[in-house]
Amino acid sequence: MAQVRIQDLLSDGEINYLSGRKLCVQKCLVKNNIPCTLSKVPNIAILGSGGGERAMVGLLGSLSQMGEQGLLDAALYMSGVSGSTWCMASLYEKANWSSDMEYIKVVAERLGHGSVSLKDRVLHLIGYYRANANFSLTDVWSALVVPAIVKKIDKSTLSNYQTCHDKDPYPIYTVINQDCKYEHLQRETFFELTPHEAGYTLAGAFVETAYFGSIFNKGVLTKPKPEMDMTYLQGLCGSALADKEVILKILKEWLEGGENMKALKDHKGVQLLSTVVDLQLCQYTGCDPAPLLQTTNELLLGKMGLDGSMLQLNFDGKNSADQNKQIQTVTSAASKFFFEWNKDLVDLEVREELDVFVKTLDKVTEKSPDKLVGGGSKVGELLKKFIDRVEKEAVALQSHAGPRLILQVLELYYGIHREEDWTHLVVELNTLLKGKKTVSGSDLMINEDEWLEADLNSRKKLAHGLSLEICKSFWSWFPDLKNAIWDYIVKKIMQFLEWLLKYWIWGTNYNYLHRMNAPHIDKRLLQSETTHFEDAGLLVNSPYMSALRHEREIDLIISFDFSAGNPMETLTETAEECKDLDISFPKIQYTKSDVSSPKGFYVFKGLKKAPTVIHIPLFNVDNCGSKLEDYRKKYGTFQGAYSPEMIEDLIKKAGENVLNNKETLLGVIKDIIEQK
């Protein structure tokens, strides 16, 4: 009977795998004129950051060139976040892929020219719906969107890797526990999945990968569930890229292009679903929903909402926020009462597909900004109360920068709620933030160019992160304001901002630690029957913690960084996390020019127990020259699928970072062996 393992030890499966892999590493080093005994073979981990398709293709190019240069077999581990896990999944689909560099070309060809039909994606979603009692938006994203990006539905499972990859680096996929992140349980937040075990990287609580998602009670398996497939795992790891608009557009395509749905295009119930999706899309595309009113109201005639009142849309004299509330009310009712309103569809063969469709629509739209929060106040009302309270308390302080800063934070989110343009607030915030440092000592500003180029979803994330940092640093900036009233205001704003990102429920999974006796694990993690996982890039956009797990005794980290924005950010964020968690990490120092015009290769030497870190930003002055900004703009995180020409160019550009620095890399490895 499977049981939870509470130990700060590697699994037997991983240990056995590594013993064979180390022989490959030793042979690789000898071929590169670095002779060493088996006992002195360095433990080297390759890391791939997040970054959507840019990360997937970038890692593909980096690994291809490492293979061409005879360096790939030097790696003991390979760990990824978000988009890099898509690359890993594509490669590990083939046994011992690292011995066949031609396979990378096969994957690249698939990305450039392959496709997965909507029919196949819908069928896969239906399969998830049947099998997963914890059906969530991760199922939707994984089945409908991820295959369209990676051009593949992979039904294999991670535990299948146990016996067919004895010549490849040991793979580690990383996510974070969303609940632990919001509870500020740092040690319990980081989570990893390997072919043998899934578990909490730093907290030391693991379960066999084949049983991750099954039901446990007090650490003992009570009800096995099917293991998630690799398509779902890719969706889980890459959920930071999820976008409501993208999913809604696919739902529209499903209604118009799905074989079963097309046959029902004249049915009033299906027409209502189509109109509701159009209304929802208007909130993202900026189109005027008014022309849809007559059609919607005709289809709603005689139908009642969740509160028992007659459903009709009336936008006369209503602002966009009030219009959106009405749209949400109609959407919720149309989802929940679909079969009650359309009893003639209940017994049709298409019933299950319709059921999955309306459940998906409900999942995508159920967590609206109008969800009731503490005290029964709606978000907009809550924001107004905060703003009024701050303005009232700020009157006596006149021009004090502290209240002005808090007001700007609240105005920023009030603008988000009302879907208004709040770009001007960025300039005002930056003026107030000039010269101020975060608790970790870094500058706190929004790059105005990055802001202007970002889409709505990205702007919200930037605003959220900035606002939380302001609240964290508030008292160090304004100690003269320390009193009960301002302490209350700042705490409430922090709670609100953290709640704001919980609109969608992602990665719902049975909690295998439920009711366990594990004194060293925070009891909040032991109490819930289910828990939630999400893209690790939402915390730190590179999987450093998996390599810093002390049992792995990593000597050298080779970090390929495909992040947008500050190319040194993952380093500083990891250093801050390590400081908080008392984990050894190299001292990170760099200049302003390293941010604006990074080099292609950095070495941060480890001291004592800390590993040495090689940091390789994707786009840099070495491989891009004067076209650095052009490449950054060309390969966005949230843009559509890359063309075959873009994929070929990006693979080449990423590979140059390896080709240009081969000898330097080998020199670092030599130094590490000499020190062992």
Mean pLDDT: 86
Q: In one word, what is the shape?
A: globular
Our estimate of the beta-strand percent is 5-15%
Query: Cα distance, first to last residue?
Result: 41 Å
The total of helices stands at: 30
Low-confidence stretches: 367-379
Number of strands: 14
Rounded to an integer in angstroms, the radius of gyration calculated over CA atoms is 26 Å
Percent of residues in helical segments? 40-55%
For the sheet with most strands, the description reads: 12 strands, mixed
| Helix-and-strand structural type | alpha/beta
Description:
The chain has 676 residues and is α/β, with parallel strands linked by helices. Helix content is 51%, strand content 9%. The protein is built from 30 helices and 14 strands. Mean pLDDT is 86; it is low at 367-379.
Structure, briefly:
This protein has about 675 residues and is an alpha/beta fold.
Write out key terms for the chains shown.
676 residues; alpha/beta; two-stranded antiparallel ribbon; 30 helices; 12-stranded mixed sheet; globular; 14 strands
What is the topological layout?
Layout: E1 5-6, H1 12-31, E2 44-48, H2 52-68, E3 77-80, H3 83-92, H4 102-113, H5 118-131, H6 137-150, E4 170-177, H7 178-182, H8 186-189, E5 190-193, E6 197-200, E7 205-208, E8 215-217, E9 220-223, H9 230-237, H10 244-257, H11 259-262, H12 268-285, H13 293-300, H14 320-336, H15 338-341, H16 351-365, H17 379-394, H18 401-417, H19 423-433, H20 448-453, H21 456-477, H22 484-500, E10 508-510, H23 523-527, E11 530-535, H24 544-548, E12 556-561, H25 569-581, H26 592-596, E13 602-604, E14 612-617, H27 621-624, H28 628-634, H29 644-659, H30 662-675
Parallel strand pairs: 2-3, 2-12, 3-4, 12-14
Antiparallel strand pairs: 1-7, 4-5, 4-11, 5-6, 6-7, 8-9, 10-11, 13-14
